[in-house]
Amino acid sequence: MNNFNLYLGQDVKLTPNEKSDTEYEAEVIAKDKTGIDLKVLNCEPESTSIFEEVREWILCFEGSNSLNQLDVEIKNISTRFNLVLLVNPIGEVRKIERRRYNRVQISTAIRYRNLKQQESKTAHLIDVSASGIKMEVESIIDLQVEKKIIIDFTTLDEFPISKIKARILRIKVNQNSRGKVRRYYIGLEFVSVTKEQREEMIEWVQQQKNS
User: Fold this and answer.
1) Confidence of residue 66 (pLDDT cuts 50, 70, 90)
2) Which of 41-50, 128-137, 149-158, 161-170 has the lowest mean pLDDT?
3) Which of 26, 27, 49, 106 has the fewest CB neighbours in a 10 Å radius?
4) Does the pLDDT of residue 67 top 70, yes or no?
5) Which of 136, 96, 123, 104 is nearest to 202 (CA)?
6) Residue 167 C-alpha from the chain's centroid
């Protein structure tokens, strides 16, 4: 079986279809003639319902000079220690466009809150683009993939929008966390953003990259 140059330890992403915002991060932990074993990183072992309901997924991974997509079918689900999926490729690898918006690394504190709550919590901003952000938090209580939250950017110098609604796309443990406190990376996509606001953010990101 052709394993499409996937290697052990490679980070990949799973999405049910090209139009979906749902995305799970996974790691290639084994591959042989029976298929490819993927350890899902941002999903609890008991949270298997979506993989039981949807058997065909799109596997996204980095190629030598491009981002690639591969249709796969889930053949087996294991939850003994971690959530592990055995998948078989369907069809051929497709090359896809790289990220549409430029992204700039910004290290600063920001605030976020649930839609129905006024109390906010602190997160550490890692990077930002006109489509979303990556941030780091100490706790993922009340946070899960697909949940929408409010991001407060008032501490971010001259950012064109003070508060934005965002959808959580992925949650991943920071493997470099040290000490007793485990930290988590949260990837978010902005929602309910106007064309004008998007253009303002594109300009702001470009200014930061040029500074």
Assistant:
1) low
2) 41-50
3) 49
4) yes
5) 104
6) 10
The 10s digit of each residue's pLDDT in 94-126 is 887 555 678 899 999 999 999 988 899 999 999
* Residue 50, SS3 per DSSP: helix
Rounded distance between C-alpha atoms, residue 5 and residue 47, angstroms: 29
- Give the domain ranges of the chain: 11-96, 103-210
Q: Kindly report whether the global pTM for this prediction surpasses the value 0.70.
A: no
Query: Whole-angstrom Cα distance, residue 159 to residue 204?
Result: 7
Q: Which residues contact 192 (CB under 8 A, 6 or more apart)?
A: 164, 165
Placement of tokens 């796969």 in the chain? 72
The CATH number corresponding to 11-96 among 2.40.30.210, 2.30.110.10, 2.60.40.2470, 2.60.120.560 equals: 2.40.30.210
CATH fold, domain 103-210, is Thrombin, subunit H (2.40.10)
- Which residue has tokens 């508060």? 163
